[in-house]
Amino acid sequence: MFQVDAANTGHAPTQTGPTTSVGERWVFETRNLVRSSPAVVDDTVYVGSNDTTVYALDASDGTTQWAVETGNIVGSSPAVVDGTVYVGSGDNTVYALDASDGTQQWTFETGHYVLSSPAVVDDTVYVGSYDSTVYALDASDGTQRWASETGGSVRSSPAVFDGTVYVGSGDSTVYALDASDGTKQWTVETGGTVRSSPAVVDGTVYVGSGDRTVYALDASDSTQQWTFESRGRVYSSPAVVDDTVYIGSNDSTVYALDASDGTQRWAFETGNMVQSSPAVVDDTVYVGSYDSTVYALDASDGTQRWAFQTEHFVTSPPAVVDDTVYVGSSDKTVYALSEQE
Predict the structure, then answer these.
(1) Which candidate, 46, 127, 140, 187, has a CA 20 to 30 Å from the CA of 120?
(2) 271 lies in which domain range?
(3) How large is the average pLDDT for residues 58-83?
(4) 9: pLDDT strictly greater than 80
(5) Quick one: pLDDT at residue 340?
């Protein structure tokens, strides 16, 4: 799922990633931008492209296992659960595809683009739409269980934890919805569009906003625990690991913040905006930047371990599995990066 799990923590504790210089294990070219985050399950990489297609690629060599065309761009990141790929498309539709061959199991049509990435918990698919609505769908057949309206487009990907769905909206608000029926438990207004996807860890919701701020909110009642102000809009989604929040900003910086009080532990400057969401594996932070680069940073102090240059900006959040970084780029390519001997 997007950011590893249903709570959007961005932490993959059972995985390992490359920490020295990397090179291309393989590349796969699509026909348009790749902003979707790859999902890697059972030796297959599932990823969407703005060429309107969902791809399943062999994780070992990048060969195409199957490809399914939708009616518009696929910026949503696939969620793969129990042999089914759930993904949204700019054709206003949520798709459920058989993970083995791409056969369509069901579709659900919303009123606008679906760029939000689905979260799948307890046989329910939670996803947002640009029609200003968060949907809960039956994972087996796509029937609507509930729909909860917000005041703006929902590009944020839901985090689901302990019976609650947390999600941001273009109306500058963070919502907490009852996972069983969609009723609003609380809302918090920020000063800008909330495209960042919340991460929920140890009773706290961490999320960025277009008002240049990172928020830490009590998951039960929305009490503000702290805020951190950057110098740019925060559309990146946080990764939270070992009492540290890692997040990018449009001020070209990746920040590490103390999860308890929001104080800055370190900051790493890239050459352009950071809208990619960090992935943390072992003691390394992997993240892309609009400067066309994928970075690996030491999680403890932010020092650069390696950098890999693509041909265009990188907003795709990396997926790190079995010592390989899988990431998309706006140069129309999916990369598999591994350490070079």
Answers:
(1) 187
(2) 22-339
(3) 97
(4) no
(5) 83
pTM: 0.97
If one counts every other C-beta atom within 10 angstroms of the C-beta of residue 7, the result is 23
CATH number of 28's domain = 2.130.10.10
Per-residue model confidence (pLDDT) at position 11? 66
- What mean pLDDT do residues 129-146 have? 98
Per-residue pLDDT band at 15 (split at 50, 70, 90): confident
Does 98 reside within a domain?
Answer: yes
User: What's the longest Cα–Cα distance across the chain?
Assistant: 54
In angstroms, rounded to a whole number, what is the distance separating the alpha carbons of residues 204 and 220?
8
Domain-located, residue 300? yes
Number of domains composing the chain: 1
The 3-state secondary structure of the chain reads CCCCCCCCCCECCCCCCCCCCEEEEEEEECCCCCCCCCEEECCEEEEECCCCEEEEEECCCCCEEEEEECCCCCCCCCEEECCEEEEECCCCEEEEEECCCCCEEEEEECCCCCCCCCEEECCEEEEEECCCEEEEEECCCCCEEEEEECCCCCCCCCEEECCEEEEECCCCEEEEEECCCCCEEEEEECCCCCCCCCEEECCEEEEECCCCEEEEEECCCCCEEEEEECCCCCCCCCEEECCEEEEECCCCEEEEEECCCCCEEEEEECCCCCCCCCEEECCEEEEECCCCEEEEEECCCCCEEEEEECCCCCCCCCEEECCEEEEEECCCEEEEEEECC
| Residue 158 to residue 202: CA distance in whole angstroms | 17
**335 with 326: CB under 8 angstroms?**
yes
Q: Is 10 inside a domain boundary?
A: no
The mean pLDDT of the chain is 96
Residue 122 has pLDDT above 70, yes or no: yes
Q: Does 16 fall in a domain? A: no
